[in-house]
Amino acid sequence: MSKASGFLNKPSFIILDRDGVINVDSDHYIKSVDEWIPEKGSIDAIIKLSKLNIPVAVATNQSGIGRGYFSYAEVLKMHAKFLELLGEHANIIKYISLCPHLPEIDCDCRKPKTGLLTEIAAKLNIVFDKNVFFVGDSFKDIEVARKVGCTPVLVKTGKGKKVYNEHKAELNDCQIYENLNAFVETIK
To answer: Binding site for Zn(2+): what residues are annotated?
Structure first.
């Protein structure tokens, strides 16, 4: 269920987390292109965003690279599969920003730090405001959206149900949906 019943204005830009929002997440990491499976309805939702001319970027922590579970090249194969599934609508994905670092490195790009989002803003000349939406399934996603001034959106796919149950009192400023498709359906 959503805290919003539709938008007065359509978003100017949407940033998506990857694992748990676009594709099915795993506690054991998504390590190969074969393990990269879209969340139900996510590809259709992104195609709808394309038809609405709402540009999209992806911001994703991928510490499995730093842990040696998979290579950067394998991540690029996963992203190629994602774009291939979007078909003629692949150009709606304007940028994919990823952090390959281990959490203990304390880099500036690993969410909830803002590096991935500031990289997207710099590459695409975006000014963060409440018309820019960040859709994620983790509390780190909510935190980073708040830090840069985006509208935070929590989806209950991936880790989202657990985050919702554990952080209900801290989500008053968030829009909450069952999945990416439910969020996109509210955009007019």
So the answer is: 99, 101, 107, 109
